[in-house]
Amino acid sequence: MALTRSGAQPRQTMKRLLPIAIALAATTAFAQEATYKVEGDGIPKPLTSAPGVAARGKTLIAAKGAANCLECHTIKKDKLNGGTKGPALDGVGAVLTPAQLRLTVVDFARVNPKVTMPSFHKSASILSVGDGKPTLSAQEVEDVVAYLSTLK
Q1: Does residue 107 contact residue 119 with C-beta atoms inside 8 Å?
Q2: What is the count of structural domains for the chain?
Q3: How far apart are the C-alpha atoms of 96 and 108, rounded to whole Å?
Q4: What is d(CA 142, CA 101) in angstroms, rounded to the nearest whole number?
Q5: Is residue 26 located within the same domain as residue 44?
Q6: Helix (H) or strand (E) holding 106
Q7: Same domain (yes/no): 116, 43
Q8: How far apart are CA 47 and CA 95, in angstroms?
Q9: Does the pLDDT of residue 93 top 90, yes or no?
Q10: Which of 40, 45, 73, 139 could serve as 86's disulfide partner, Cβ 3.0–4.6 Å?
């Protein structure tokens, strides 16, 4: 049986290193998911290097899953019926810039702390969500922002 430099058997070494590797991977995933900077009233830089795709954003919203916008909002233009707690999203792309839309999706509490709306990619929420991940990935945020930007 081969030994490592420390004299331990490879299987024992792997058992000791596995928790460290998992912690490093989680830290790296956290850093990748939570990288954004609020400037003024928005997040001007996209969260990913790949641009958002409006069709994917529309699909995410229509699915009423993680991007549960239709819980409170409607999008009449695309016949996406939803709730009435929030305003209709028709025209939102003409009123808000992509940077403002991005902040709205990432962390609405920064926009208006008095209104109850989920933060879909907020850094702090990563620590409080059971599975340790934000509700929407960075790419999904960009896809939703791309779609909302088309609503003019």
Answers
A1: yes
A2: 2
A3: 13
A4: 10
A5: no
A6: helix 98-106
A7: yes
A8: 21
A9: yes
A10: 73
